[in-house]
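Aim 2, interim progress. The first record below pairs a target sequence with its structure tokens.
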Amino acid sequence: MSTRRQLLSAVATGTAVLAAAPLFAQAQGPGSLLPTPGTPGSGPVPTNAPIAGGKFRPFSRIGLGGVAIGNGFAPASGEQSQATLQAAFAAGVRYFDTSPWYGLGLGERRFGHFLHDLKREEYVLSTKVGRLLSATDSPPKTMWQEPSPFAYRYDYSAEGVRRSIEDSLQRLGVSYLDIVFIHDLSPDNRDMGERWSEYFEQAARGAIPELSRMRREGLIKAWGFGVNHPAPALRALEAGDPDIFLLACQYSLLDHREALDKTFPQLARRGVSVVVGAPLLAGYLAGRDRYLYAGSVPAWAPEKRARIMAVAEHHGIDLRTAALQFAAAHPLVSAVIPGARTPEQVQANVQSMQIAIPGEFWEALKREQLIAPNAPVPAQA
């Protein structure tokens, strides 16, 4: 028999879901945006202090992920993408992440067009290796909308990685890269599945030593893995000396226990920092009914999101603000890189990083067991 407390909790959850529905309905179209309540903090966007003798970290703790710039989920015009990039820089963003995969080369070209007029030392730039592009009249069907006319093939060999970086330098119009991530070499990559271990062996013999060589040459400053699953990142610790990992889909306000308790401690022992990709779960923590990249929302997610949102509203903040600051609070995290399709979205993301969140909010989430009791949270406002 249900207790009175369970009944009240169920009622409260149901009420929160119903209350959130009209608000979330406003956030379903491409470029949509929920309001950012709360009290803005003062000062510039958060940065990382230099670590003498430590591994490379981006100096900007808020970056711009490049999926939307590469026409992920929906197309964007070149003009809109340039406006978004300009808005990011004007708001204080100094870390930009892209990939040859994003739009099949389109994303890198758009970033390069914008970065051309900036001094190279003013920003940190990361891209990825693992796929080589070749021109075709019939681009493969992918998640990219209106991509460039290229096909792709996987290549984690030394020669393939060297060529990939040379191609990226040309598309981006720069002479060096700050960070290079070995991309999507992971069991959740549907192209690979169980064969990911075979690709990893190729990378262990080719990509990893070649990137270490490029780091010594000064062509790149740092390398790591950019993956949506922890297994390849942890395996990379045994195969080489990585600097930094882009871990997407693994550390968020809604789902973080495995990374917190298992992945992060192993990385910390090696001094490897983490860039959190998809801190908003590809829009789910900004009001969209899209959860990451698989297209389906987990059965447990709507109730948990609604409960967190109810606590956030009680404390005068919004879900996006809570999600971004939570993801950035862990000391191992060197940056969070939410994506943005419009200037308004990127401005809202930066504003969220400057909102003063009451300490009582985080205490309430832990009390209600909505976040892990050992999860680091921002300093109390």
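The second target in this work package is listed in the same format:
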Amino acid sequence: MALPRNFRLRLAAALCAVGALLLLAAVPAHARTITDALGRTVDIPDDVQHVICSGSGCLRLLTYLGAQDMIVAVDDIEVRRRQFDARPYALANPQFKTMSIFGEFRGHDNPELILTLEPQPQVILKTYTTSMGYDPDELQAKTGIPVVVLNYGDLGVQRPQFYEALRIMAGVVGRQDRAEEVIAYFDSHIADLEQRTADIPEDQRPSVFIGGVAHRGPHGYQSTEPIYPPFLFVHARNLAGEGAGKKMQHSDVAKEKIVEWNPDVLFLDLATLQLGDEAGGLFELRTDPAYQTLTAVQQSKVYGLLPYNWYSKNYGSILANAYFIGKVLYPEKFEDVEPAAQADAIYTFLVGKPVFPDMNAMFGGLAFEPVPLTQ
């Protein structure tokens, strides 16, 4: 006979509490203290061997550190099989798809599932705790497992937070040297991009617009980023960013405004292809009479870019897109760059494998190519 629902709920809560007490009792005598991104002081074991990564992008950072083999389970986004996937860290680690699940994506953890994992994680690493998912203090209390919070940051004004996240995570998993290598890698490539284009006079910089940018899902061509990082790195004149605030990361621009701007070069975030053949940015560029008036459309100056907003920011794809954009806008400054090879060099360093061909194939081979505007 099935047990009443309220009894089952009380039993699960009791088991969770008992498990937490047992885990607390098992904390080793040799421990150390980590200060996380929220300023919380968290006691963790000296020698951490097993972790889980909760929240958007958290497992990506662990992969950058080469410590992905330390995870004992994944959130449910990692086991999904879809037509499109623009996460290089996941493509480089297909074993994630067969691992145990500890909760739902975007940080919606399941304490009861976590307590059933074998081996048990010694630390839970967690991103985006102020905007979504399980409260870190409550999760720590329910599981008895230390929760270390990270600020995912970005490659713009929040680059210091991104670097801090790498350093905090590295301190937990013992990959401090690798964290400094990754930080130096981003700094050197961003400096290289900026140095190649810094001396180009303002009046010689083509005007640009990117449409179809993903933001918690796919969008049509009016979806853009006023402070699109690859444009910033190569000093492109992003028309959507003129007069926009430095923190305005996403915007929907009126189609009439795009027509009025008539940018010299257009880019298409291929995330928009998720909307299907009869919708999305590519379909709109091909069929909408308003877009047909744009000079860049008429001259076939529309280029496909890798999606980078895919379970938060794929930092390697930001760099890869920037090198391709630089090659399109200023070919004489990027004569030594072959964009696909550059992308694979970036991915090999960050995630351990050259995954550009696999990812590009999912998006119809349109990445780093002129987009065909006839059907």
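Residues 85 and 224 are 20 Å apart (CA to CA). This observation will shape the mutagenesis plan for the next reporting period.
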